[in-house]
């Protein structure tokens, strides 16, 4: 019999994974990636320090490998990420004021233009809030206060008017000070006519910690006229059973499906073999590529 795969069930929303092209030589890795998912996000390859390690010297190769993989297997690509406090190359972090602003706009324009037409959505700004809802101290905030946010969205929109432009963050899955600040910002940007089209909820969670108001929280954002997406899902087993983990994965998929305007779910790496979570087992596939109960649970939920 021909086994069904996650992407065969993903009719209402896309189902994606973060991928790294350095693992493509691992045949099981690339086989599962291509068979199961209809969306991918470069795990690190489009981050500034990797893609433009020195001024004007772009290292597009690894990101292009991912885009080619997506084209080969009919997957969409989420571009990740243009402006972040991490992975800022040294040559950028020494700049300030007008020089920094010029470099920021140039980076966004060049990168988004290069991949124009192959990117479904870009995470334009990533992780700009503290837990209490204040703005995170960063090169960007410390130089420009909040004006870099609208400027980044405008530059990305000018470079690729067809890409969906997202703001992305973690610990915003439920109603709290941080998600309230995010909500207020998105509302303000929309009222100012800033081209923002979506909000990404990273959703790095643990079994026992799936917020009961996740869907309600997603829905207040879509009411502002933006899409929402689960962009970096992983669920630490947290000492619980694999079945409990499967139920948690199912709950998150169902939360997305219950909200009109929740467009897709991306898992932040599908296998424990290469997961950024090394202290726990948070992925649907184990480190030997065996499907955990989470895989069937996601399939059933989709
Ligand atoms: C992580 C990658 O998974 C790691 O390989 C890398 O060392 C650090 O970044 N939030 C994000 C992602 O937006 O880009 C991060 O990815 C995980 C947290």
Please give the domain count.
1
Strand order of the largest sheet: 1-2-3-4-5-6-8-9
Question: How many DSSP-defined strands?
Answer: 9
CATH topology-level name: TIM Barrel
Strand content: 15-25%
Structural class call reads: alpha/beta
Biggest β-sheet: count, sense, barrel?
A: 8 strands, parallel, barrel
CATH class reads Alpha Beta
Distance between the termini: 21 Å
SSE succession: HEHEHHEHHEHHEHEEHEHEH
Globally, the shape reads globular
What do these coordinates show?
This protein starts with 5 loop residues before the first helix and ends with a helix. With 302 residues, the chain is an alpha/beta fold. Strands 1-2-3-4-5-6-8-9 form an 8-stranded parallel β-barrel, surrounded by 5 helices. Helix 6 packs parallel to helix 8 (147-159). It has a single domain, classed as Glycosidases (TIM Barrel), CATH 3.20.20. Helices cover 40% and strands 18% of the residues. The chain is globular, with a radius of gyration of 19 Å. The model has no long low-confidence stretch (mean pLDDT 98). The protein contains 12 helices and 9 strands. Helix 10 (214-222) links the parallel strand 7 (204-206) and strand 8. Bound molecules: (3S,4R)-3-hydroxy-2-oxopiperidin-4-yl beta-D-xylopyranoside (XIL). (3S,4R)-3-hydroxy-2-oxopiperidin-4-yl beta-D-xylopyranoside binds at residues 43-44, 126, 202, 232, 276.
């Amino acid at each position: 019999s021909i086994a069904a795969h996650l992407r065969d069930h993903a009719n209402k929303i896309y189902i994606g994974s973060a991928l790294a092209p350095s693992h493509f030589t691992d045949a099981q890795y690339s086989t599962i990636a291509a068979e199961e998912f209809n969306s991918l996000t470069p795990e690190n390859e489009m981050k500034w320090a990797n893609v433009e390690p020195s001024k004007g010297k772009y290292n597009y190769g690894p990101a292009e490998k991912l885009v080619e993989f997506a084209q080969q297997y009919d997957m969409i690509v989420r571009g990740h990420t243009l402006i972040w406090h991490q992975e800022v190359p040294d040559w950028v972090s020494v700049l300030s004021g007008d020089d920094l602003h010029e470099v920021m706009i140039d980076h966004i324009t060049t990168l988004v233009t290069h991949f124009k037409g192959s990117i479904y959505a870009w995470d334009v700004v990533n992780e700009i809030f503290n837990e209490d809802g204040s703005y995170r101290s960063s090169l960007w905030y410390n130089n420009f206060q909040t004006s870099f946010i609208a400027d980044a969205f405008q530059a990305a929109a000018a470079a690729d008017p067809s890409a969906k432009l997202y703001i992305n963050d973690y610990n915003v899955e439920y109603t709290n000070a941080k998600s309230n600040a995010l909500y207020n910002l998105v509302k303000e940007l929309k009222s100012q006519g800033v081209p923002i089209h979506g909000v990404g909820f990273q959703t790095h969670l643990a079994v026992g910690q799936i917020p009961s108001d996740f869907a309600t929280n997603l829905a207040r954002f879509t009411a502002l006229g933006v899409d929402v997406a689960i962009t970096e899902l992983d669920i630490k087993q947290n000492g619980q059973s694999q079945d409990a983990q499967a139920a948690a994965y199912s709950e998150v998929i169902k939360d997305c499906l219950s909200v009109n305007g929740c467009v897709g779910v991306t898992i932040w790496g599908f296998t424990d073999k290469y997961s950024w979570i090394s202290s726990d087992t948070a992925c649907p596939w184990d480190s030997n590529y065996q499907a955990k109960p989470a895989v069937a649970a996601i399939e059933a939920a989709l």
